[in-house]
């Protein structure tokens, strides 16, 4: 599944590797990879593959799940489609409380004690998804874990997830994407080592000039 998803994301440009011309993140970090999983929604074949895989992963890894909750905003559509496939209730969690109306942060009906799986499109340092998990826990939900489409596998993110005691199951990850990209001819094999060096320490830009 991981390799099939990786190939699909590369094919539609949802994941794009450009180590020779790094992208710049909002934090200022130079990155050889750009990820925009919103493009999945405009590519029906990839979308069907991803949403079915999310649903299958929920069934396999979290069989007691009662509600799917998407992260705002990119996880909302994926949670909605997967919930439709699974015939489960769905909602989403805002980045903060709404400043009008009822002031909700959690949208959709959520009863205390319900078993929830969070649907996230992308995990890097895991800060935003952990905030979602904490909001759900504060509301009385039992968060079984996360299903994400793509994860970088950065140490900071892994440590944060472990500290929050939340499990993440990702459809594919940075390592698999680099391998598949090399096999497809998107990048030379020699780039794999420096791409993984970025993953291990994004603040160290020595990978840009080659390892």
Structure commentary:
With 211 residues, the chain is α/β, with parallel strands linked by helices. Helix content is 39%, strand content 22%. The protein contains 7 helices and 10 strands. Strands 7-6-5-8-9-10 form a 6-stranded mixed beta sheet, sandwiched between helices. It has a two-stranded antiparallel ribbon with strand order 1-4. The longest helix has 18 residues, at 44-61. It starts with a helix and ends in an 11-residue tail after the last helix. The mean pLDDT is 93.
Identify low-pLDDT runs: none
Instruction: Quote the beta fraction.
Output: 15-25%
Computed over alpha carbons, the radius of gyration is: 17 Å
Number of helices: 7
Report the biggest beta sheet as strand number plus sense, adding barrel if it closes: 6 strands, mixed
Overall helicity: 25-40%
Mean pLDDT over all positions: 93
Brief write-up:
The protein is an alpha/beta fold and 211 residues long. It contains 7 helices and 10 strands.
Q: Mind sketching the topology for me?
A:
Layout: H1 2-11, E1 15-17, E2 23-24, E3 30-31, E4 33-35, H2 44-61, E5 67-71, H3 74-86, E6 90-93, E7 106-107, E8 115-123, H4 127-138, E9 142-151, H5 155-163, E10 168-173, H6 174-184, H7 191-200
Parallel strand pairs: 5-6, 5-8, 8-9, 9-10
Antiparallel strand pairs: 1-4, 2-3, 6-7
Helix pairs in contact: 1-6, 2-3, 6-7
């Amino acid at each position: 599944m991981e390799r099939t998803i990786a190939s699909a994301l590369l094919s539609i440009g949802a994941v794009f590797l450009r180590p020779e011309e790094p992208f710049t993140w909002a934090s200022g970090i130079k990155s050889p990879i750009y990820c925009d999983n919103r493009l999945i929604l405009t590519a029906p074949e990839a979308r069907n593959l991803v949403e079915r895989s999310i649903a299958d992963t929920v069934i396999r890894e979290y069989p007691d799940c009662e509600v799917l909750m998407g992260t705002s905003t990119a996880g909302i559509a994926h949670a909605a489609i997967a919930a439709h496939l699974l015939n489960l209730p769905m909602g989403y969690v805002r980045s903060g409380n709404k400043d009008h109306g009822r002031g909700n942060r959690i949208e959709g009906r959520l009863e205390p004690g319900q078993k929830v799986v969070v649907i996230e499109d992308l995990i890097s340092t895991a800060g935003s998804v952990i905030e979602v998990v904490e909001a759900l826990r504060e509301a009385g939900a039992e968060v079984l874990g996360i299903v994400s489409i793509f994860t970088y596998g950065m140490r900071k993110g892994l440590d944060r997830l472990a500290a929050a005691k939340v499990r993440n199951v990702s459809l594919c990850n940075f390592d698999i994407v680099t391998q598949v990209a090399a096999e497809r001819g998107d990048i030379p094999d020699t780039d794999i080592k420096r791409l993984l060096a970025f993953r291990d320490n994004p603040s160290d830009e020595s990978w840009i000039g080659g390892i």
